[in-house]
Each structure stands twice: as structure tokens, then as C-alpha cells.
Amino acid sequence: MKISLDNRLAVVTGASRGIGLACAREFAAAGARVVLVARDATRLAAACDELVAEGLSAIPMAADLSDAKAAVALVARIESEVGAIDLLVNSAGAARRFAPDDLDAAAFHQGMDAKYFSTMHVLAPVVQAMARRGRGSVVNIIGQGGRVASPMHISGGAANAALMLATVGYARAHAGQGVRVNAINPGLTFTSRVEEGLEVSARASGKTREQVLADELARIPMGRMAQPEEVARVALFLASDAASYVSGAIVPMDGCTGSVI
Ligand code: NAP
User: Fold this and answer.
1) Vertex 224: Cα angle to 103 and 163 (nearest 5)
2) Is the pTM of this model over 0.90?
3) How is domain 9-253 classified at the CATH fold level?
4) Which of 30, 180, 232, 250 has a beta carbon 3.0–4.6 Å from 26's, enabling a disulfide?
């Protein structure tokens, strides 16, 4: 199956590294024009330069999506200066991990601001515009931590659980208007975020970072982490017309760790 995103405009949030950058690359390679969004303008420009050097389309637009006004302004700017958004991948997020004894109000707000609101602030205006046009597709990169509780990921995991509900709710709300909304729940995926998680777990457990990593890998039936490109390929499928009858789906990508129906 050859997936083409020719003549589509895609917006990928959290696109300066990790899963978001892999999605931007995959979507651009499939023919889409891609707007990449992240907070740090310098790192974002470097990511876009990387894609352009590979002959791919990449338009940088820096914004902090935890700020509702900035997110709404960004969507308006893209729609007026670049074009109508056909595809949206929400991969922005930096929910930190906290040992249970460190959880407090600030930690709960951090999880929601970094992950839940950074997604919802963009999702709402984009889906409304898509619904008015009668077409569009959204993929939210969420996380298995919203389905399987981990003591180190209570605040970020709760944000993920809320995002799953919002994904299916939006899918249902706009199914009759040509808009599809799906999600991917990655498990451990090889990006810079993994390092931070390992360090928090190592501190809380008294183990070394290497021991924590070995324990984590031993729990994954496939015996390894996902690569960001593997997540991006599933995002490409879900976003594209190849998945034209798929909406409200939440796809686990955890190397078969969950093993639940
Ligand atoms: P990453 O490598 O840390 O990349 C996160 C991206 O989001 C960066 O481009 C970052 O750039 C951007 N970002 C963070 N906060 C933002 C904000 N407020 N506004 C705009 N951009 C923002 O993360 P990743 O590992 O690719 O993870 C991507 C998503 O997958 C996250 O939501 C994460 O929760 C989820 N996930 C990851 C894993 C994993 O094991 N890696 C597992 C499950 C779920 P700036 O810092 O410059 O803004």
C-alpha cells in the first residue's frame, strides 16, 4: 500500500525532536507540506533544516502550546499564512515523572499543562475548522501510561487518561462531518524523554540507571523499546485516507506489554 499525502497540509506539534520529528519527516516524505511546532525556536529551526536538507517540506512555527492564547493564535496564523490544515499530529508534551512522595499540586498541574492542555488548546480550534470544511484527520500521541498506572507517572498518566477520553469524544462529535480523530499510545520509545524517566526511577528505587533500563526492557515482550519512526508510520496510516473508516481508535504500541483487550 502506497500512502500519499500530496496536496495536504499537516501540522505536527512537538516536532523538534523525538516522535514528533519522526512524524514530520514521515508525513513530508509522503508528500505533505508540514508545519513543525515546538517552543524552542533554535532547536525547531535545526529540525526543519534537517528535513529541508533531505529534500522535504518543513515550515517552523515556534509556540508554547500550554498557553491557550498562543495556541489559538498559532492555528489562526497557519490557516491564514500557510493554508487550511488537513492533518494534525499532537506530539507536544513534556509531562515530568515524579516519585509518589514528591507529588503535590504543582506536580499535578505540570502534568496537565505539559500534556493535556498542550494538546487540547490546539485540538479544539483545528477540529472546529476541519468540521466547517467537512474534512480532516487528527492523530494524538498519548501514551500507555494513561491506561496502565505507574507510581512514577501519576500526574502525566492522568493527563494521558483524560486525552484518551477527549480523543474518542471528539471523534464521536465530528464523525458525521468528515473529521476523524485517533490516538496512538506508545510504550517506552527511544527519545530524549526516556533518559529523564530513567533518572527519576533510579533515584526513587536506589538502582542504577542501567539496572532500571534493564528491568524496563525485561518487562517488554518484544525485548526492546519502540523507535520513533515506528510510531510515525502508524501515525501516517491513521492520518491518511488509507484509514478512512477508522475514528475513535486508540492504538497501543508497547511491544505487547499491555496484553489486554
Ligand atoms: P520529546 O523527545 O521530549 O519531544 C517533545 C517535543 O514536544 C519537543 O519537540 C518539545 O520541544 C515539544 N514541546 C514540549 N512542550 C511543548 C509545549 N508546551 N508547546 C510546544 N511544544 C512543546 O518527547 P517524545 O518522547 O517524542 O514524546 C512525544 C509525545 O509522546 C509526548 O507527549 C509523550 O508524552 C508521548 N510519549 C512518549 C513516550 C516515550 O517513551 N518517548 C512514551 C509514551 C508517550 P520544546 O521543548 O522546544 O518545546
Assistant:
1) 45
2) yes
3) Rossmann fold (3.40.50)
4) 232
